[in-house]
C-alpha cells in the first residue's frame, strides 16, 4: 500500500529544489481563477483540490466559518513514483501568520501536519504547518502527515483515508491568521499562570497557561470547558488551535478546532470536576455516558432524548473500539462536532496535526474536542 507523505514546505529559495515538484504544465495558464485539480501520478485516488476560492469555503459544511479569512492556494508537489505529495503554503504580502488547512466534503477542516519521519527524507527540506511571524516555529522539522493513504473504497473507487476513514474530495487552502488582536479579550482566572509564548511574534493567540498541581488549564466558553491534549504532560496549556476568525466586517470570534467560543476565560479545573473522568493517553477525558443526565449534557440538539441508553463495555485508551451490548450503537459526542455514529472504526488519541507537543482525539477522521461516548438503541439499528 502506498504511503502518502503530506509535506508542507516553507518558502525559501533553496527549499524549492529539495522535493519533487509538480512538473510545469505545457498548456499556458488560463485566466480562470480556479486551477485544475492536481493528479497524483499513478495513485488511483482522486486528485487533490485547491480550495482557496471563497465560494468553496463558503459552501463547505464544516469550514464555512472561515469564509472571511484571506485564503490562497498552496503549491502541491508530487512524486509520481512514490505516490507522495507535499503541500507548500508560500507567504503572501501582509500576512505574517497562516495555517495550511485540509478541507473535505465529509468532515470538518483539518489544520495539518502530522508526526515526524525523518528517515523518509533525503534532503533537508524545511517544512511548515503553521507560519507565525513569517517563521515556522514551535515544531521540530521536518514533519509529515501520517495515517493518510490511498486505498480501495467499498464502492470500488480509490479514496484517501485518514486514520483509516475515507476522506472525500480532499483539498487544501492556505488560510490567513491575522486577526488575533481584534478578538474579544480572553479573561484569565485566578489560579492560571498565563504567559505569552513568543512576544516577538506579535500573535495574540499564542499563550502558555499553567495551573497548580492536578488542575488542567481549560478554555471556558459559555457552552463548554475545553482541554488540549499534551504530548509531554497531559496538563498542557498550549492551545495551539485557538484562532481568531473574522465573522463579518465588524465582528471577530475565537474558534478552537472548528468550534466557536463565546466569552472566553482561561481557568484551572480538575478533569473529574468538569467531565467526571480523568485523562486517557494524555488527550484528556473521554467519559462514558451512562444515564440520561449525562446524555442531555452532550446531546446539544436533543436528537437522542428518547432513545434507550445501553451498557458501556469499553474504556478509553490510546486506540480503542467502543463495545456496546448487542443491538446498541456506539455514538461519540463532542463539543466541536455533531454526534458521530460509529460503524466499526476505532477511536484514537494521536498526534495533533498542528504540533508535536500535542495529542488529540480522532474519530472517523474528525478531530473531536471533549468527546464522550454512549451506547444507544437507535431506531434503525438491526
Ligand atoms: C509562571 O510561569 C513562568 C514562565 O513559565 C514561570 O517562570 C513562573 O515560575 C511561573 N509561576 C508560577 C507561580 O508557577
Ligand atoms: C456581524 O456579526 C455579529 C455577530 O454574529 C452580528 O451581531 C452583527 O449583526 C453582524 N454585523 C453585520 C454588519 O452583519
Ligand atoms: C464486556 O466485555 C467482556 C470482555 O470482552 C465480556 O466478557 C463481557 O461479556 C462483556 N459484557 C457485556 C455486557 O457485553
Automatic annotation (TrEMBL):
Top-level taxon in the UniProt lineage: Eukaryota
Keywords annotated in UniProt: Signal
Keyword field contains Signal: yes
Signal sequence region: 1-17
Protein name as annotated: DUF281 domain-containing protein
Higher taxonomy: Eukaryota, Metazoa, Ecdysozoa, Nematoda, Chromadorea
Amino acid at each position: 500500500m502506498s504511503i502518502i507523505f503530506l509535506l508542507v514546505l516553507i518558502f525559501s529559495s533553496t527549499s524549492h529544489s529539495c522535493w519533487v515538484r509538480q512538473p510545469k504544465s505545457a498548456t499556458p495558464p488560463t485566466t480562470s481563477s480556479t486551477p485544475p485539480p492536481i493528479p497524483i501520478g499513478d495513485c488511483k485516488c482522486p486528485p487533490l483540490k485547491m480550495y482557496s476560492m471563497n465560494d468553496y469555503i463558503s459552501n463547505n459544511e464544516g469550514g464555512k466559518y472561515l469564509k472571511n479569512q484571506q485564503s490562497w492556494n498552496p503549491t502541491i508537489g508530487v512524486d509520481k513514483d512514490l505516490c507522495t505529495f507535499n503541500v507548500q503554503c508560500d507567504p503572501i504580502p501582509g500576512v505574517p501568520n497562516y495555517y495550511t488547512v485540509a478541507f473535505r466534503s465529509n468532515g470538518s477542516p483539518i489544520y495539518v501536519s502530522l508526526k515526524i519521519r525523518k528517515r523518509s527524507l533525503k534532503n533537508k527540506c524545511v517544512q511548515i504547518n503553521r507560519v507565525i511571524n513569517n517563521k515556522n516555529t514551535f515544531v521540530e522539522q521536518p514533519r509529515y502527515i501520517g495515517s493518510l493513504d490511498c486505498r480501495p473504497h467499498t464502492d470500488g473507487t480509490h479514496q484517501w483515508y485518514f486514520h483509516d476513514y475515507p476522506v472525500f474530495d480532499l483539498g487544501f487552502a492556505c488560510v490567513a491568521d491575522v486577526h488575533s488582536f481584534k478578538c474579544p479579550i480572553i479573561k484569565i482566572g485566578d489560579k492560571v499562570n498565563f504567559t505569552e509564548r513568543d512576544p516577538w511574534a506579535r500573535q495574540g493567540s499564542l499563550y502558555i497557561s499553567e495551573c497548580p498541581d492536578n488542575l488542567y488549564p481549560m478554555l471556558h466558553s459559555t457552552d463548554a470547558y475545553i482541554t488540549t491534549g499534551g504530548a509531554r504532560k497531559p496538563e498542557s496549556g498550549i492551545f495551539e488551535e485557538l484562532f481568531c476568525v473574522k465573522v463579518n466586517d465588524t465582528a471577530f470570534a475565537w474558534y478552537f478546532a472548528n468550534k466557536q467560543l463565546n466569552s472566553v476565560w482561561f481557568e484551572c479545573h480538575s478533569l473529574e470536576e468538569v467531565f467526571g473522568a480523568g485523562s486517557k493517553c494524555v488527550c484528556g477525558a473521554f467519559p462514558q455516558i451512562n444515564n440520561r443526565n449525562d446524555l442531555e449534557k452532550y446531546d446539544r440538539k436533543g436528537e437522542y432524548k428518547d432513545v434507550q441508553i445501553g451498557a458501556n463495555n469499553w474504556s478509553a485508551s490510546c486506540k480503542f473500539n467502543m463495545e456496546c451490548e448487542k443491538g446498541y450503537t456506539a455514538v461519540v459526542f463532542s463539543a466541536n462536532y455533531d454526534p458521530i455514529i460509529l460503524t466499526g472504526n476505532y477511536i484514537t488519541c494521536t498526534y495533533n496535526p498542528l504540533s508535536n507537543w500535542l495529542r488529540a482525539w480522532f474519530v472517523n477522521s474528525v478531530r473531536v474536542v471533549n468527546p464522550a461516548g454512549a451506547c444507544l438503541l437507535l431506531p434503525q439499528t438491526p
